[in-house]
Amino acid sequence: MKYYNFPFTAICGQEQMKKALILNIIDPKIGGVLLTGQQGTGKSTAVRSMIDILPEIEVHKGCQFQCNLTDDPSDNWCDFCRDQNPQKLRKPINLVNLPLGATEEMVIGSLDIEKIIREGKRAIQPGLLAKANRGILYVDEINLLPDHLVDILLDVSASRINIIEREGVSLEHPSAFILVGSMNPEEGELRPQISDRLGLEVQIKAPTDPQLRAEISIRVLEFEDQPEKFIQKYSIPQEKLKQQIQSAKKKIAEVIIPEELYAQVAILILKLGLYSQRADITFIRCARAHAAFKQRTEISKEDLWEASNLVFNHRVKRFDESISPEILETYFNEIFNDYK
C-alpha cells in the first residue's frame, strides 16, 4: 500500500509552525524547532509533509550514511563509497522518527571492534543518526525522552558529526540533519538548558475559528478519500514553494547584515535577561533566512520581528516569566526603530 504525505501548502493556518520549519530548511544551523501543543493540532502531519518540499539528494546506492557526493572523498566518505565505486542515484531525504524507547546504541550506532582490529577499516553499525544525515530527525514527545539522549541529539545537531566510542576506539561520521521536536506541555516541560539549545519554538493552538476548522475537515477528508487527486490539486503551489526555498538557500549568504545589528541584538538580549550567546546567533540567522525567503538582499524590520517571535518567547518564558510579549515588543521597537 502506497503512503502519501499531506501537501505542506494545503495545511490550513499554523503559519508560525510552517514558517519555523521552512526557515530551518533554508538554514539548518538555526538549530531546529520545538513544536509545543496538544495532540491533534497537525504537528506530525506538518513534519512529514516537509519531505515533498525538500529537494532530492544524490547518494551512492547502498550507502548507509547518505554520504554527500560533493564532499572530499578522503575525509568525509565512508569506506563503502570510497572502495566500491557504487552507482549514483537520487532519492528523497530521510525522515527518521526517534522512538521514546530508543537506546543510546540505537541512536548513535555501534562499533565492530573485531572487524576494526582484523581488517583495519572503519566498522560502524549505523544508528538513527546515520540514517538522518542530510534529512530530518523527528522526536515526538521530546520532553519524555531521557535527558542524556536529548543532550546527544543537540550536540550532534550543533557539530554535525556523530562520534562513536568503545573500548578506546573512536570513529565518527557526518550527521547533518534538521532537528524537529514536538511535545504536549501538559505532559511535562523541557529543562531550560535544552530549550535554549533548540533554535526556535512555536506554540501551536487548535484554531477557534469555525470556518477555519471546517476547511481543515474538508481538506483532510478530500485527502483521505482521493489522495492522488488532492495532491495534484496542490502540485503548483508545492513546486512554487520548493523553488522559493531553493532560491533562498542559494541567496542566504548574500543577504547583508548591517554592522550595527550585532550590537543592537546584544542590547535586546541583555534587556530580556538572557545571557546565552546562542540567542544572539540564532536570532540573526533566523532574520537572515527570513530575508532570503522573502527575496530580500538586506535584513528588514519585518525579518527581525518574525525572528523575535520564533527565537525569544520560549527562552524568556523559561528564564523570566515577568517579561510579557508586550514588554518584548516595546523593547524591540525601541531598539529597531530605524529599520524599515
Automatic annotation (TrEMBL):
The entry's keywords: ATP-binding, Nucleotide-binding
Domain AAA+ ATPase: 29-208
Coiled coil start-end: none
Superkingdom, natural source: Archaea
Flavoprotein among keywords: no
Official protein name in the record: AAA+ ATPase domain-containing protein
Family to which this protein belongs: Belongs to the Mg-chelatase subunits D/I family.
Signal peptide annotation: none
InterPro entries, per the entry: AAA+_ATPase, CHLI-like, ChlI/MoxR_AAA_lid, Mg_chelatse_chII-like_cat_dom, P-loop_NTPase
